[in-house]
Every structure is written in C-alpha cells, then in structure tokens.
Amino acid sequence: MMTETQTQPQRRPVIFWFLLFFASLGAMGLILDQSDISDPLIANAMMLVPMIFLVKAGLNAMHNAGRQGERGSPQRNYLMRMLVVSLAYVGSLFAATSLINDGDPITPLSVAIAIVPGLAVVGYFWAMGRYIVELKDEFVRMLMVRQSLIATGLAFSAASVWGFLESFEQAPHLDAYWWPILWFFGIGVGAIVNKIQYGTTGEDCS
Where are the domains of the chain? Predict the structure, then answer.
C-alpha cells in the first residue's frame, strides 16, 4: 500500500532559486561594472543569465501550488502569468536596449519597441488583478486587497511628494517607471503588515 508521501508530489525549493537569482544578478552587475565590456548586446546577454534561476524558482512555485489541487489553482495560474510576463518584460527590455541607441531619431518602430517593456509591466498588474478575482477564499482575497491598497498608497504618496519636490527644483528628475517598482516593493510591505496583524501573508491559507 502506498503512503501519502509516496502518492503526493514532493515540494520543490523556491527560496533557494530566488537567492541564486539575486546572487547571480549582483555578480553579473559587478562583472560588468569592473570589466571593459562595452558592447550592449553582450552586456544584455550576460544579464539574461540570472533569468534561468528565476524561471526555475517560478516553475517550482507552480509545482508546489499544483500539489494543492483545485485549491491551489488560482495561485498556480497567477504564478504562470507572472512568469510569462517576466520573460516578456526581460526579452522586450533586452530588445529595446539593443536596438535603440542614444541620439537615434524617433520613429514609429522605435516607439513600438520602447513601449513593449511598459506594456509588460502593465501585465503584472493584470496578473495580480486576475489572481484576486480567481481567489475563492474570502479571507485570502481580503489580505491580497490589503496588500494592493498598501502598495498603491505607498507608491502614489511617494510619487506625489517627489513630484512637488521636483516641480520646485528641490529634487532631481526621476523616471516614471520607478513608481511601479516602488509599488511592487509596497506589495512586500503589505505582506509584512498582514503577517503582523493577522499572523499570515495568505499564501499558507490557499
């Protein structure tokens, strides 16, 4: 007779691969900073190497969510969408930095190439929204909505304050794509707030 541990797929490591991703990302950045590599194509290709570890982390996380059956389906779908969007973002950013150089004339083609990374970031918000819609557990949904509201409040507040500082020439110009990055940081802050207030981030409840 087969035991439960034999019939149920084993959990696969996720944090380990995420740590490898960040370590390799830092290593590649250090190598590029200390080397004489000036070809943008080679530099961008080197920065794609860490994505191997990110993809592995995403696939393992999807596997772990799939162990929960129908209960883990929303999380698995969410992770799949985030992985696809991440690959689209990195690929489009690689193409844009390789094909568009400083001083190049603005053309419909250059605009189309430059806009794709931004649309990929929009895909992250879409994936998060779909995840909230697909969640069946009302408590977990509430936690995710709280995370999103905290992230939105943090990003919009920072953008407002910095915008006025910049308007009155009290702060340097900051590219607008930094505000979505701050929003993603705010998602992590929201998870910590949920953990403190409710004792869970929601992942262990799905």
Answer: 137-206
